[in-house]
Amino acid sequence: MAKRLCVNIDHIATIREARKVREPEPVTAAMLAELAGCHGITVHLRQDRRHINDSDVHLLRHTVSSSLNLEMAVVPAMIAFAKQVLPNMVTLVPETPNEITTEGGLNVEAKLAEVTDAVQSLRSSGILVSLFIEAKIEQVKAARKAGADYVEFHTGAYANAFELRREDEIELELSKLQDQITFAIKSGLKVNAGHGLNYRNIHRIAELNGIEELNIGHSIVSRAALVGMERAVKEMLSLI
Ligand code: PXP
Fold this sequence. Notes:
This protein is α/β, with parallel strands linked by helices. The chain is built from eleven helices and eight strands. Helix 2 (26-35) runs parallel beside helix 3. The structure holds pyridoxine-5'-phosphate (PXP).
């Protein structure tokens, strides 16, 4: 089964926020990603609003015609926001104030009651709910108990092992992922995956069986900035 690609465009907003101006506009990036054939757009509305803001999410809801996946922390204000905007999917993630990016998966087992309430509330508004978790059996079981539709397995440990060329660790992380993907599907969950995936390490993840969607952000936005550089410079040269 071919995997769907959802493009995380948070870092288009990161570039915008570096200058606090209007460009680059995340909605434009979303439209171009859709024109290129992606299957969905993902954004993380962080509580500190460091990149994507509320207005971006509203605009994306009106313009994204594929599928909009909103990543957010499990806090009442975010749940209320999602129920107002109605993305196609909400992915609940852990969030700590000064982290550079989402560190680790959500500890659903430890926060089962809180996560279950959030899942029920979102599902009652017709939103699909995914839980971003580590590939661990206790987390998959907890996700099932919480009533989630999907789990998204954190691929960060695999990506780190790949970067460090630790062959044994790469194989270990891949087998943990495959085991938990299979277990999750048997338990009635659907499976997504993401974090740290790039043009070098994606092939081994693409070979795993059972993943429906891959959420990829940093590497796609980085490559877009580089492959677009030549054209951008030529366009400016023609103007001067
Ligand atoms: N999936 C989730 C739940 C995330 O939080 C992120 C990062 O925002 C990603 C996927 C994408 O990770 P990356 O930017 O490393 O591709």
